[in-house]
Every structure is written in C-alpha cells, then in structure tokens.
Design brief:
The longest helix has 37 residues, at 331-367. This protein has helices at residues 13-44, 49-58, 60-75, 86-90, 92-102, 109-141, 146-179, 183-208, 222-230, 233-263, 277-300, 305-324, 331-367, 372-400, 411-421, 423-435, 443-460, and strands at 270-272, 275-276. It starts with 12 loop residues before the first helix and ends with a helix. The chain is an all-alpha fold and 463 residues long. The protein has one domain: MFS general substrate transporter like domains (Growth Hormone, Chain: A, Up-down Bundle), CATH 1.20.1250.
Length: 463
C-alpha cells in the first residue's frame, strides 16, 4: 500500500523565480500592446479611434469561446510533464510569430488595414489564450498550500512589473532607434526583439517548475464544470472586479501616451538617461507596480486579502481624481500621482491572482470537481475583456471629443484626453472596491479549505 502524501515542502527560490518569468514574457507583449497599440493604430497605421475601439471589443466575442475552451482542454490534458506545463513548450513560438504579425503593417488601404487589424489581433489573442491559460492554471497545482501559492504569485507579479518596466523604459526609444524616422519599421523590429525574449522566458518556466498537485483527470460533463463555476459566488464577484480593475489600468496606461504627447508640454523633452518624459512616466509607474507586488505579503500580515483589495481600489480612485486637477506644467506632480496609482494596482493584481486560485480550490472543495483550468481561463477571459474594454473606452472618448491624430488638439479634445486619463479609470477602480465588499472567502475559510483539501488529497493518494 502506498501512503504517499502531497509534497508540502516550501517552493525553492529557483522555482518561484522560474514561475515568475512567465508573466514577464506575457508582459513583453501585453504591456507593449496596452501602452502602444492604440496610438500605433491611430497615429502610425492610420486606423480611426472609433474603428480601433470597435475592433478591440468585437474580437472579444472569439475569446468568449476560446478562453473557456482552452481551460477545458487543459483540465483534460494528461502528459508526462503534467496538465499545464506542456503548453508553455508547445505554444511559445506561435505566440511570438503572431505578435510580430500584429505590427507587420501592410499597406492594404483603409478597409484592408482594418480587416488586417481584426485578423492579426484575433490571432495573437488566441495564441495568448493557448499559452497563458495553462500558465495561470499552473499556479493552482504548483503547491497544495495557499501560502506557497501566494509566494509564487508575488514573484509572478514582481516579474510582470519588471517586464512592463523594460517595455516602458525601452520600447519607445527602440522604436525611434530601429525606425530611424520610420515608426512602422521601428515597431516591427522592436516586437521581434520582445518576441525572441518571450520564447526564451516561457521555455524557462517549463524547465524550472513542476506540478505538485495531481488532481484526477477530468473527463466528465462540461455542463457540470460550468455549473460548479457559476455556483461559486466569490469567483463571480472576483471576476467582475477583475474586469473593472483591468479596465481602469488599461484606460490609464493607454491614455498616457496621448496625455503626454498632446496635453503635457514637456512630454517629448529628455527625462532620464535615454528616456524622454513620456517613457519616464510610464517606466516609473511600473516601478511603482513592482514595489506594490513586493510589499503585498507585508500588507497581508495586517489586512485580509478582501480588506486590502477594497482599500487599494478606493485609494487608487482617489489619486486619479486628484491628478485631474494638476496643471500640465507640473510634470513631476503628475508623475507622483501616477506612480502612487500604479503602486496600488501592483497590490491589487497580485491579490487578484492569489484569490483566483483560492476560488478554484474552493470550487473543488465544495463539489469534488477539479476545474482549475476552467476557473482560471474564465478569469483570464474577464481580464482580457477588461483589457480590450480599457483600450476601447479611450478610443471612443477620442472619437467623441473630436481628436485628430498628429494635429494640434482643440480645447474640447484636450478635455477628452484629460477625462480618459483620470476620471474614467477612477470610476472603474471605485466600482471594483465597492463590489469586493461582496467577496466571501476570508482568511478563516481559506485555512479550513486548505486543511480539508490536504487531507482529501492525502487519502486519494493512499492505495
């Protein structure tokens, strides 16, 4: 008789770093898209803001099907490498190639450009789904203890922040250097560099991590899996809150380039080292996110996850409202407000993914059904929808306030840029904070769940 128990030894530093590298790889693309894709479409590729905003939203119809489907596929995968890790090996190169396609920029005429944007954006998001859903679900099986998963989550978002810092600090200078005055060429060559780095990092995750929790292979009813998911009230609250938080962030960072280019007179001036003031503000913001992720465990010694999420969301909204009233000539004051705002996001996004895995385990605890892949994939869809909506809202605001690319803006369009940079994200962060008051998984419940699941898994592995 085998009495093998689940491996509860702490995660090594190597494995925590290894897991974190995956979100650095993701943010070499998603950070790049979040900051630069809208202004690339409007100011470089020549797509109207309204058309770009519509495209961001319409393409999410595909994700509504592919994200849960990928979760179901991953939950039913069984290989010598585990359920989720193999996809990091298999999908890295397609993900890299399709990211390059997005910025290929063929001159097809107005309609042809829009069709190309729809197709290329849909394909790269499909590849992102195929690699990032399993990567995120890996967190649920990397360790049976919530505390160790929280540590892995912290490292994940430390490296996510480092990835966006690298993008913020280098992308615009690289575009300028590689393009030599040709922005389209500059974007194309810059994304090749980030594509190669992303492949190397995803493969590193594959080799440096392992799956300690081995739930039974799922082959049951898909309807049953969805039923378990939608009976999990805390997951529903968290998924909607995640949408609101990501809309707030992406609305803020995708507006930053417009705010600095058209409203703040010093945006193009030299900032620090090779960065102009636009790149510097973006970079310092993500340094704030890094410190937010690093300090989250310290905050959790004082606050419950739910309490901390609510506090940071309301604080973020307050900072953004305050930033609206800062004069454009006060660059460093704007930067200070921005860094503080993104710091709070660093705490929230770290909490969000730790809480997603708590919700996945809660669903298994109550139902006996492992659906970590579906839970995480549905959560990922909510975040991708939030990202798309967060890019679409500023695009529609630009169109509504009469924005014209590469021209001196009217007072009305400047007003729109200020609103989309400050008030719009503030509304979404405030709404997320209010909604999180309905989240039910407190520290005592998580501890009880963890102990029960350890016992259940120990019994299941006794033959």
């Amino acid at each position: 008789m085998s009495t093998k128990k689940p491996d509860t030894a702490p995660l090594s530093l190597t494995e925590k770093i290894g897991y974190g590298l995956g979100d650095m790889a993701s943010n070499f693309y998603m950070g790049f898209f979040g900051i630069f894709l809208l202004i690339y479409y409007t100011d470089v590729y020549g797509i109207s803001p309204a058309a770009a905003g519509t495209m961001f939203l319409v393409t999410k119809v595909v994700d509504a099907v592919t994200d849960p489907a990928m979760g179901l596929i991953a939950d039913r995968t069984s290989t010598k490498w585990g359920k989720y890790r193999p996809y990091l090996l298999w999908m890295a190169i397609p993900y890299a190639l399709l990211g390059y396609l997005l910025f290929l920029g063929p001159d097809f005429g107005e309609t042809g450009k829009l069709v190309f944007a729809y197709v290329s954006y849909s394909l790269v998001m499909l590849a992102y789904t195929a690699i990032n859903v399993p990567y995120s679900a890996l967190l649920a099986v990397i360790h049976p203890k919530s505390a160790e998963r929280e540590k892995a989550t912290q490292w994940r978002f430390i490296f996510a922040s480092l990835g966006t810092i690298v993008v913020g600090a280098t992308a615009k200078p690289l575009v300028d250097t590689f393009g030599g005055g040709n922005e389209l060429l500059g974007y194309r060559l810059t994304i090749i560099l980030f594509a190669v780095l992303s492949v190397a990092l995803f493969w590193s995750v594959f080799f440096l991590t392992r799956e300690r929790v081995a739930p039974k292979r799922e082959g049951g009813s898909i309807g049953r899996d969805f039923s378990v998911l939608f009976q999990n009230v805390s997951w529903i609250v968290l998924a909607i809150s995640g949408i609101l938080i990501v809309v707030g962030l992406i609305a803020r960072i995708s507006s930053a380039t417009f705010y600095l280019k058209y409203y703040v007179p010093s945006g193009e001036q030299s900032g620090l080292w090779w960065m102009d003031r636009t790149s510097l503000l973006i970079t310092l913001g993500f340094v704030g996110q890094l410190f937010g992720a690093m300090l989250t465990p310290t905050f959790l010694k004082v606050f419950d996850k739910r309490q901390l999420m609510i506090f940071m969301a309301i604080l973020n909204a307050s900072l953004l409202v305050g930033c609206y009233f800062v004069p454009p000539s006060w660059y460093w004051t704007v930067t200070t407000f921005h860094v503080a705002s993104i710091f709070t996001f660093g705490v929230m996004i770290t909490l969000l993914f730790a809480m997603y895995t708590d919700c996945a385990e809660y669903g298994e605890w109550k139902s006996g059904v492992n659906s970590a892949g579906l839970t995480v994939s549905a959560s990922m869809f909510s975040l991708k929808f939030g990202s798309a909506f967060g890019s679409a809202v500023p695009a529609f605001i630009l169109a509504g306030f009469g924005f014209v690319a590469n021209e001196v803006q009217t007072p009305e369009s400047i007003k729109g840029i200020r609103i989309m940079f400050n008030f719009v994200p503030a509304i979404f962060f405030f709404a997320a904070g209010l909604l999180m008051t309905l989240y039910k998984l407190n520290g005592a419940t998580v501890k009880e769940m963890e102990q029960a699941m350890l016992q259940r898994r120990s019994e299941a592995q006794s033959v």
